[in-house]
């Protein structure tokens, strides 16, 4: 029995990598990401502290579909 698990992550890409993302990625596309896990925080206008975890993308590999 095949089980598919979908996960959503925030990815940050710059330069050529960002251009590739913009041109070729669509919702549901499978990709492999190589990068660095980054944790940061910021404060909202209302003064609430928010925490964010992102992947700073160094390399992107488009898979299948």
Can you give the helix content as a percent range?
A: 10-25%
Low-confidence segments, given as residue ranges, are none
**Total beta strand runs:** 3
Strand order of the largest sheet: 1-3-2
Strand content: over 45%
Give the overall average pLDDT: 89
Distance between the termini: 20 Å
Give structural notes:
The chain is α+β, with helices and mostly antiparallel strands. The protein contains one helix and three strands. The protein has one helix at residues 15-24, and strands at 11-12, 30-43, 49-63. Strands 1-3-2 form a three-stranded mixed β-sheet. β2 (30-43) and β3 (49-63) form a beta hairpin. The two termini are 20 Å apart. The model has no long low-confidence stretch (mean pLDDT 89).
Overview in brief:
The chain has 65 residues and is of the alpha+beta class. Helix content is 15%, strand content 48%. The radius of gyration is 15 Å and the shape is extended.
What's the SSE blueprint?
Layout lengths: L10 E2 L2 H10 L5 E14 L5 E15 L2
List keywords for this structure.
three-stranded mixed sheet; 3 strands; 65 residues
